[in-house]
Amino acid sequence: MSTLQHSPDAPADPSQPASPALRARGVTRRYGTGAGAVTALDTVDLDLAAGAFTAIMGPSGSGKSTLMHVLAGLDAVDEGTIHLEGTEITALGDDALTRLRRDRVGFVFQSFNLLPMLTAEQNILLPLELAGRRADRTWLMTLAEAFGIDKRLDHRPSQLSGGQIQRVAIARALITSPAVVFADEPTGNLDSRSTEEVLDFLRLSVDEFAQTVVMVTHERDAAERADRILTLADGRIAADEDLAAGRATEQTSPRTASQAGEAR
Predict the structure, then answer these.
(1) Most exposed: 99, 163, 173, 186, by fewest CB within 10 Å?
(2) Is residue 32 one of the residues assigned to a domain?
(3) CATH of the domain at 196
């Protein structure tokens, strides 16, 4: 399958490593005050690579949802800085932060958050309409065909399966060609078959469209579809697993093809 990309231009010098899509330094988030204060994130340092699929796991109260919220600009930090493609989002005012989320961040939610009175196509294009931007019909159809919903664009959510609804939600998240897509427990309300489909399409977003995806999940099987798994505990990163490197190692034989032939 050929790679169909709809993403920002590559770095001018391909020999230089690409800058991370997201960078967090010393990020701390507390809730409450005084003796009852809870530290949800404790001086977190993190770089998330562009064009990669990162899963965030951890038990309830570990800080995984808080981390996603501050990285997406949905919640403020008490200390530290966060940069999205070089823009320090922790320094932005409310209006600028709203524009950044609208134009440069995509969201996929567990509860889908589609508008029931709109068709699938209208739901997908809604972020562009809200931003006053013209729809790119070619990009719309590229997404719809890739996600297998091109024959369902005139259907309302009530006429779609759970898996199809979440595919519409993923297409909506990608329609603005955002810097990062955040997926918050995207398979939480789906059966096993639909779960696999949605994970396939999130993976496709990375592999075919060079999209950066950050997914919060409590399911290990879902997390293992990512390139990297971050496990949080007590507001800190307790484990950082590079699955992409492991897969690359598994695909590389210790013997050359000619050596394998000689062995036969």
Answers:
(1) 99
(2) no
(3) 3.40.50.300
Which residues lie closer than 8 Å to 128 by C-beta, 6 or more apart? 134, 135, 175, 176
Question: What confidence tens digit (pLDDT) does each residue in 29-80 have?
Answer: 999 888 888 999 999 999 999 999 999 999 989 999 999 999 999 999 999 9
DSSP line for 27-90: EEEEES-GGG-EEEEEEEEEEE-TT-EEEEE--TTSSHHHHHHHHTTSS--SEEEEEETTEEGG
pLDDT exceeds 80 at position 10 = no
Instruction: State which residues form the domain around 203.
Output: 50-75+94-249
Contact assessment for residue 210 and residue 11, using Cβ atoms and an 8 Å cutoff = no
- The answer to which of 129-138, 193-202, 239-248 has the lowest mean pLDDT is 239-248
Query: Once rounded to an integer, what is the mean pLDDT over residues 193-208?
Result: 90
- Any domain includes 39: no
Number of domains in the chain: 1
161 burial via Cβ count (<10 Å: 0-12, 13-18, 19+): middle
Percent of the chain whose predicted confidence (pLDDT) is above 70: 86
Do residues 230 and 238 make contact, with C-beta atoms less than 8 angstroms apart? no
Better pLDDT: 8 or 134: 134
Residue 58 belongs to some domain of the structure = yes
Q: Residue 176 domain-assigned? A: yes
Question: If pLDDT is split at 50, 70 and 90, which confidence band does 251 have?
Answer: low
Give the Cα separation of 242 and 207 in Å (integer). Answer: 16
* Structural contact between residues 22 and 184, judged by C-beta atoms closer than 8 angstroms: no
- The H helix count followed by the E strand count for the chain is 9, 10
